[in-house]
Amino acid sequence: MNNLLRRLWRQQHGSLAVETALALPIVLAAGAVLTDLITVELEREHMEQRAGAIASVLAMQSELSRQGLSGLLAASIPDENTGSYQLNIANVRQNGQVYWQLLRGNNTGICTDNVVPTGSTWPGELPEVNEESGKENVSMIVVELCRNGSDLTMLGGLTVKNQLKVSAINRVTRNTLTLDATLAAEAGLEEDADE
After folding, report:
1. pTM greater than 0.70 (yes/no)
2. Distance in angstroms between the alpha carbons of the first and the last residue of the chain
3. What's the rounded Cα separation, in Å, for the pair 56 and 91?
4. How is residue 122 annotated by DSSP?
5. Where is pLDDT greater, at 189 or 142?
């Protein structure tokens, strides 16, 4: 009887090792895929925080200089682990007209859907646009942050082929945000910079 119990124990112990060896790669692969999904969501959350911070700070300003914008972006978007990204910052009036738009980032060809010339109508969605009764002296700061998903380091081999895109919109507290001469020229507001 003891021999039979020992033999059964050895057989079960051996089959447990085989089952573990077969199941371990599946468990590891599932863990790696889950880690990749969490990585993508954490990056999206970081992007939302950055875009929201930039929009909030800019909405509180009455004037924006090139040096001030550079300092804000240096504080908001770290140099390491940002990958290929584009930042669109626009001041859009309540009537839907783009007062100015600035592009930043290390790749300005990522999110071009809402890149429009000064004076044209904003093509994206806005929370309080009204073409007929919208006021020119009420405006919003729209910040769009896009990143190539393919630069994210993935553990499980998932690839994000398309881009990650977030946006933040805040109402400007003091009418419209005036740009210094350098930024105004960049945004196509040369005549406003001369005034």
Report:
1. yes
2. 103
3. 13
4. P
5. 142
